Each structure stands twice: as C-alpha cells, then as structure tokens.
Amino acid sequence: MQKATLALLNAIFEQDFLDCSYGFRPGRSAHDALDELGRVLCRRPTQYVLELDICSYFDSIVRKQLMEMVESRVSDASILRLIGKWINIGVVDEGRLLESETGTGQGQVISPLLANIYLHHVLDRWFKDEVKPRLRGHAYQIRYADDAVLCFQYREDAQRVLEVLPKRFAKYGLTLHPQKTRLVEFGRSAYYRAQREKTKTATFDFLGFTLRCATTRKGKFTVHVSTMKKRLRRGLKAVANWCRKHLHAPLDSQQRTLNAMLRGHYQYYGRPTNYRSLAKFHRVVRRLWRTWLARRTRSGWLSWPRFLQLLARYPLLPPRITHAWDTR
C-alpha cells in the first residue's frame, strides 16, 4: 500500500521539488549531487561553503506541520488518512511498543518522500525565494535528503544565512548540530591564497566523502574527493566482524563474500581522484583476511608467501574507479 501511494505522490511532488534536491528522487543519485557540487565549486564564483548537519532529522519532523505541507497538494481524504496512520505508527524494540510525538518512522517505504517534502518547504523553497534575492552575491544549494551544503560568493552572505538558519529550523522543530554545522573558506581563491602563504586549505564532508581543493595536471583548479575516515573505519570494521564470525567457512565461500563487500565499496566510493582510499581499503581487507585465516592454524601464524599462494587461487577484487569523470 505504501509503495502504491509513493508512486502516486511522486507524480505530484516531483513537479514541485527543485533541482537542488537529489535524495530519494527518481533518476537522481548521490553521485549526481556530488557532480553538481563539483561543478558549482569549480565553475561558479563561490568562495565559502556552509556545511549543514541536522540533529536526528527523521525523528524530529513535526507531524502536524508535515501533514499541512502534504495537504497543500493532496486533497484526497483516504490518502491523507493513510499517511496520518503511517507517520503515527510506533516502533517495536525488544518486544516493547515505543511511541513518539515527532518523526516519520525510518524504515517505511514512504518515509524518504515525506522527509523530502518537509525539507523542500523548510529549506529549499525558503532559500530560493526569500534568501537568495536578499544576498549580495551568488549562492547555491545542493541537498541529498538531510545532508546539505550551501555555497556562497561572499563571506557576509554566508554569515547572515548561518545566523538565521537556526531560527528557521527551530520554527519547524529541527536543530542544527553546533559542531558539525560550520562555515569554511573553500574554492579557487582560498586555494591559491593558501599556496602563496604555504598553508593548508580547509576540507569538508559530504555524502561520505571528504572534499579538498587541488589542481589538475595542467594547473587548473579542481576538487578532489577521498573516502571519509569514519566511513573507511566503519567498512573495515564490518569486514573484520564478518571474518571473525565466519572463521571456519570454506575459503571459496569467504572469497565470494569478501569480493561482494569489496565490489559494493568500489561501486559507491569508486570516484575519480579516490583511488588511494580504495587501494587502502583493499590492502587492509587483505591484511584482515590473512590475520583471521592465521587463527585456523595451530601456530596462529600464516606467512605472507603462503598467503600469496592462497590469493593466487582465491583472488580478491582489486580497487577500481567505477564512476567516470563528469564532463558536463
């Protein structure tokens, strides 16, 4: 029922959503958002980036305000009644039913769309219709679900928006993380100034990647990405836990699963300029596999020559770039 309703509501709200929104929308992905952010940073007059982080976004949505936003475009009483029931459903945790006054209930098929509708009204339309006309210079927004960045040409514009954002979000029950929401100087001017002063430019995180200023081989300004350290540790921890739980599984079975985990990592993080992080992930996965295979021996030791012989028979997928350069 939720899937059918989602298809109906998508046809309605896709006409309203702005181009700056990429999360959970048909034909759009996180990599489209990263490509657009790269174009803005490299080809638009931007010098400052405001990184937004909303505390417990999906659990903080005010249901009454959300329903008012949906009712502004949907008038069918049956659909509205269903949505009202879905967002007010509780969560079963260890056999107990937990209920809350806010939130849309993560895990439901329709929750991402409802979350998109909420931020469309709270942030997207407000930034386009009320904020940008009042700014001195250019400004751009790129958002994927609750992960968003705002790019500005002038620092005073960014400061003004940073001051008013908490008030705007508080009006709708949302809170910005005080440490993770930050304004950084980022762009062509910041990079060349840092080169002259022999200092490092700031970095910021977006959709699991750390973005940093750099130059191409021809000396033109560009933006490089690398896997966030937190995401890299989380992925390696998952591999180590799996190896520990399946220590005595057949080698061919272990190889298939590890290759599936490597393939999934490459498919998301395999962006141009991120090969070094991919190679590190592959290298540590290989080391972890050797460490846990050594536990199967009486001595608890597996020499590298012997392990390389095993790798020749059960090879692990090498790191590879899975996304092409954005040439648009």
Percentage of helical residues?
A: 40-55%
Number of helical stretches of at least 4 residues? 12
Largest sheet: 4 strands, antiparallel
Uncertain stretches of 5 or more adjacent residues:
none
Regarding quaternary structure, what we see is single chain
Assess the beta-strand content as a share of residues: 5-15%
How many DSSP-defined strands?
9
What class, by secondary structure content? alpha+beta
Based on Cα principal axes, name the global outline: globular
Average the pLDDT over all residues and give the rounded result. Answer: 93
Strand order of the biggest β-sheet: 4-5-1-6
C-alpha-based Rg, rounded:
23 Å
Termini separation: 39 Å
Order of H and E elements: HHEHHHEEHEEHEHEEEHHHH
Provide a descriptive summary of the structure in words.
It is a single chain. This protein has 328 residues and is an alpha+beta fold. Helices cover 50% and strands 14% of the residues. The strands form 3 sheets. A 4-stranded antiparallel beta sheet has the order 4-5-1-6, sandwiched between helices. The chain has a 3-stranded antiparallel beta sheet with strand order 7-8-9. A two-stranded antiparallel sheet has the order 2-3. The relative contact order is 0.12.
